[in-house]
Amino acid sequence: MIYKTAAVSVASLLRKGLSSNITRTMSSGRYKVYITRSDMPECGVDLLKKQCEVKMWSKASPVPLDEFKKSISGVDAIYCSLTDKINNEILDAAGSDLKVVATISVGYDHIDVAECRKRGIRIGYTPDVLTDATAELTMALLLSTSRRLPEAQHEARTGGWVSWAPTWMTGPGLAGSTVGIVGLGRIGQAIAKRIKSFNPSKILYFNRSEKQEAKEFGAIKVSFDELLAQSDFVICSTALVPETKEMFNKTAFEKMKRTAIFVNTSRGGTVDQNALIEALQNNTIRAAGLDVTTPEPLPLDSPLFKLRNCVVLPHIGSATIETRNTMSELSAKNILAALNGVDMPAELK
């Protein structure tokens, strides 16, 4: 993978004749990097500490806005997560020394990309490395929802399990079903490959462009409305952009089968959450499995937590140990490359 061949070190930069780019490291002080939370995986943090002066928020939680603004004055780089809004206010607080913002996420809707570009600030992110982890979690969530695993566990623990019964805790299977995937990028394709092994009747997809890779797993490109009408399972795997914001709204849910199951592991903003709640309450669709919501974390009094036909997870799509470590290393390498004026392993273009 590209990030594995892009390690940055002072020695390698000197060999490339880039000594002028690291003058600051040798004379006027080391580059300053601010990390927005204390629980970033250590492997990436340690890489930065070898070459930079690193300061971070002291808690394993999102840094408060006032503290964030106060702490980033004069920094050269910000290492953030998707919970940190990088907007005009933050960029102004950082000042003119800020050269790069690196987010430990594949999504970047929390960053004002246009403003960063206007100011000449480079943006690093972590594509590719979380594809398999997110696809695995999508399958786990789909099966947990369709086979009603949280409900079944609750019944087993609370005395509802009296005896075997032929129709008790039944749910729809994937074999012979039609599965629709909205967004057939890297993660969507990885999901489709896993779906294929469950022997569905058809895999449909809706995407802005036709994907040649779809031939590998026999997926058929259809319109959004066709996908909604035909699918037994609808999986949202699209990026959150203006065109996809709340694309799953009241109208969309009403076009789905009443027996359909909806799964979202992309971004909460792709769904009109009130419309989803209504659709679940009224049995407009059978059930939903969500790894993303609006807002995050979801308030404890949210109706979604009260619905038996909804499984909610706390945005853990990329939460394997290996994936998070790789994401942290890639974020650090993005920062080091940008500070030293060379190509970043994963730069948002």
- Spatial strand order of the main sheet: 8-7-6-9-10-11-12
Described by the principal axes of the CA atoms, the overall outline is: elongated
Distance between the termini: 18 Å
Beta strand % = 5-15%
Oligomer kind: single chain
User: Are there runs of 5+ residues with pLDDT below 50, and where?
Assistant: 1-23
Structural class: alpha/beta
Q: Report mean pLDDT, rounded to a whole number.
A: 92
Sheet with the most strands, sense and barrel status:
7 strands, parallel
- How many helical elements? 13
Cα-based radius of gyration, to the nearest Å: 23 Å
Number of strands: 12
Describe this protein's structure.
- The chain is α/β, with parallel strands linked by helices.
- The protein contains 13 helices and twelve strands.
- The strands form two sheets. The protein has a seven-stranded parallel beta sheet with strand order 8-7-6-9-10-11-12, with helices on both faces.
- β10, α12 and β11 form a beta-alpha-beta unit.
- It is elongated and about 70 Å long.
- The two termini are 18 Å apart.
